Amino acid sequence: MKNKFIKVLSLLTMVFVISSCDRTFEEINTDTSKITNPTPGSLLAPVQYNMASNAYLRANDFTFDIMQVAVDFPGEGNNIGRYYITESTGNSYWNTSYKWLKQVKQMYDLAVQQNNKNYQAIALVMNAWMYANLTDTYGDIPFSEASKIEEGITQPKFDKQKDIYVKLLDDLKTANSLFVTSSLLSDQDLFYNANNDTNGVLNWKKFCNSLSLRLLTRILKRNGDVDVYSRIQEIVNNPTVFPIFQSNTESATLSITGVAPLLPPIARPQDFTTSRAAGEFFVETLKANNDPRQSLFFSQAKNLSNNQNIGYKGVPVGFSSGTTFSYQPSNMNQNLAKAPAKILIFPYAELQFILSELAFKGIINGNAQTYYENGVKAAIEQWNATLPANYFSNTSVMYNGTLERIMLQKYVALFFVDQQQWYEKRRTGYPVLPNNGGLLNDGKMPQRLMYPTQPKILNAENYQAAVQSMGGDNINVINWWNQ
Q1: 365 has which bridge partners?
Q2: Domain chopping of the chain, boundaries
Q3: Has this prediction a pTM greater than 0.85?
Q4: What is the rounded distance in angstroms from the CA atom of residue 254 to the CA atom of residue 252?
Q5: pLDDT by residue (tens digit) across 53-76?
Q6: CA 353 to each of CA 361, 362, 414: distance values in angstroms, whole numbers, following the listed order
Q7: How far is CA 265 from the centre of its chain?
Q8: Which three-class secondary structure state does DSSP give residue 476?
């Protein structure tokens, strides 16, 4: 019986070997688990999820600290909140961004080959969003020759920030003209569900033009060097041709469901609050307004003597070594790291504050106070909170005709929006953040991040040329748009 079984097994093995011989070497060695013929649409969702997660993590790991939203606690050592910045501070941001920018380029190239205008436009919008954040972080960066290793360019030149901005703004104008708003997308869209929602592509178009206004406002100081004011007016005065966000429902966001693959960027919620406290400046700003988001953003502080809640009370950034506290400070609300949640890419509230500033400066028509109040209301409602009655009667929040007031509320509205608080602080000087004696860099807000290690080593010649052009590779070198 045993010998019979062995004979049958041997026969089956021979049949398998003979049949296998009919397959070519290429067939046997083809990895069928990968997409061999991707469509432009198939490349969109991975970029959206990974770059939205990256934006969330930049807010949590960097912006919270440097903009006094949160504080390393109880540690007293050097950290970002004290303006201790090293070349490694921006390593992951640089590497992650360029990784996914390569896929955006592939999406655009495929869309051009297949004459798919919507995916061409979306790729241009994603490209502008990502590159604008990169240049706002570092200054001059690889751009026109980046992501071209297949063309033999392994050491791309660093483009000047002005040239990057001009190209991105032109690309966004091109994207606006490409969108076919009557069509659905073919593949999953994590921002606007435009593969199912008939308003989805129109919302992409609104994101495109709202993003243009973000970039144009960023470079207001360079009007004349670039035709900034007329480009702004062209968009604002022609809503039919250049539609922009009209409500929170049109904001660019990504929903974190908690169901794979849409998982929270921070795997364990407890890690969100470990060795951390809420920053005193941010807490006190919301307290002064009697802001309805306080419980959504913070835990309550406790009196150490009796463990009783004492309301919301943060920790001053840069407190002196040896400082003791009679209370356990408020921390960030751990629910901010849990699903379900929305990652904010570009909120409607931000656009309203942009329009408020532009009206305040007389660059566009419209009432700066109305835009301001719309922004405050939208910023509260984007967190599913309700604007209290008589909220604008509070002297701490009512419009007072100053840019400082507009920017303070914009700072609050930009909570958890990648690094936008930091960019806007550098551009306008607002909000005015306190120095409690422990800030490094002579108490001066860092103006940029140093280039990461990788381009210094692997692209040394172009790195050196960029450093010489910019005037150095340190955190106090001022970007072109802020000069």
Answers
A1: none
A2: 43-265+338-482, 275-331
A3: yes
A4: 7
A5: 999 999 999 999 999 999 999 987
A6: 12, 14, 10
A7: 13
A8: coil
